[in-house]
Design goal:
The structure is a single chain. This protein is α/β, with parallel strands linked by helices. It has a single domain, classed as 3-Layer(aba) Sandwich (Rossmann fold), CATH 3.40.50.150. The chain has a seven-stranded mixed sheet with strand order 5-4-3-6-7-9-8, sandwiched between helices. α2 crosses α7 and α2 packs across α8. About 40% of the residues are buried. The protein binds S-adenosylmethionine. S-adenosylmethionine binds next to α3.
Length: about 260
């Protein structure tokens, strides 16, 4: 469980002792992320129970594969909630300039270690310290999904939108669910919140299932590392074909445009 404000909210994969609660105040959970920041950099931002690191390696591959199919941003890009710099580094190979921003100083230390010449900015989790229309694109992976409360959620989306130039994009990769009693938003709720923030959906796609039989085999080292890319390609094609209902959670990629 993690503490957000004075209310306990279940982290993904944990049982709740109380139902998810819509909160109106933003929560930052800086201490939680600082506490993880010294770990191995992928484990720090993905599944901390993945002791062999195979599942996290797979998630890293499939997320980057999905994003690379749509990503178009040659100019200046913001990696919002950059964590240990997993996507900051990836963006640095594709765009002229990338800035990583975070609420956690520990995460930024780890990101700087990964990308020594990189630009990283610590901020308060609410007001992005950048002028309007600074970026051609913002990338946010696994960040907004954890913000409880619709007001705080839309408010951070608005901040992201404010910093994007007209015609620029937000690439949002987050966990979504259709299942009642789970802490995730639905893909439609994410899309609607983005629209409230002035970000228009261009396309969206399921990327990865939170529970998948093959993921268990990967996790326990029963799938050779050399096959992970092939499995990722297969999973992307499977997810595109459905099913439409999500009983646990699904990683979803949203491409949104600032009108
Ligand atoms: C699951 S990690 C993902 C990190 C990175 N995007 C990745 O995919 O590797 C979530 C990160 O978001 C950061 N975070 C949480 N709330 C934030 C906020 N309001 N603004 C910016 N970063 C935030 C956390 O400190 C944490 O490093």
């Amino acid at each position: 469980m993690r503490r957000t404000g004075c209310i306990m909210v279940a982290r993904k994969g944990e049982r709740h002792t109380s139902p998810p609660i819509a909160m109106t105040e933003p929560t930052y959970d800086r201490a939680y992320w600082d506490g993880r920041s010294g770990w191995e950099p992928i484990r720090a931002v993905l599944d901390h129970r993945d002791r062999l690191g195979k599942k996290n390696r797979y998630i890293d591959i499939v997320q980057k594969m999905a994003l690379s199919e749509w990503y178009e941003a040659e100019g200046r890009v913001l990696d919002l909630g950059c964590g240990t710099g997993r996507f900051t580094e990836w963006i640095s190979h594709r765009s002229r300039q990338v800035i990583g921003t975070e609420i956690s100083g520990g995460m930024l230390r780890s990101a700087r270690h990964r990308l020594p010449g990189g630009e990283f900015v610590l901020y308060d989790g609410q007001s992005l310290p950048f002028a309007d229309e600074t970026f051609q694109a913002v990338v946010a992976v696994g960040v907004l999904q954890d913000i409880p409360g619709d007001d705080a959620y839309v408010s951070l989306l608005r901040e992201a939108g404010r910093c994007i130039e007209r015609g620029g994009r937000l690439y949002l990769l987050d966990q979504v669910s259709d299942a009642a009693g789970r802490p995730w938003r639905t893909a439609d709720q994410v899309t609607e919140a983005c629209a409230l923030a002035g970000l228009v959906l261009e396309r969206r796609r399921p990327v990865r299932k939170g529970r998948w039989w093959l993921l268990y085999l990967i996790r326990y080292g029963l799938v050779p590392s050399s096959l992970l890319e092939r499995v990722a390609r297969w999973e992307l094609s499977l997810r595109e074909r459905g099913p439409s209902r999500i009983s646990y959670y699904m990683d979803y990629l949203f491409q949104l445009k600032k009108a």
